[in-house]
Specification:
This protein has about 160 residues and is mainly alpha-helical. The chain has eight helices and no strands.
Length: about 160
Amino acid sequence: MWFWNAEKEASDAQSSLKSPPDDVEEAAEVLNRALKGDINDKGTKDAIASHQTSQSTKSMRDLANIRAKSIKLSEFPKEMSCLTAMDELLECMSMGGQIRNYYRYGDFTMCDKQTKKLDFCIRNKGKPNEVKEENVQRYYKDRLIEKLKRGSSEDVWESRK
């Protein structure tokens, strides 16, 4: 019977799998042996490579964050158009904007980023020019820092260089 053999092979394969180490020291020992090349287990090497990639991605984000914080406020725009902010919000809320977001990310959006921008613009309109310009520059700088903290696919390519 062919199905009996398949079940037997599956149970043999499952019993031959090694259980993960229970002790932290034992896990560290396995990691050190794998790094030295004493272990030729593909799964262990893949886990190490994944860990190293995630560490380099974190360091890339840290570097990007440091760069963003080092940018002077004077390098950001001083003006913000509330009409443009309203257009961005309406475009996001439109059927086309929702379909685009669903296609790209697999979910509809509540347009939080655009809503916050319009809200900021309206609240900032009545302030004196010097304060208004500084607030707008700080707003754009904060958005850049948030974007860099989230990371992007560019982080992967930077780490592969």
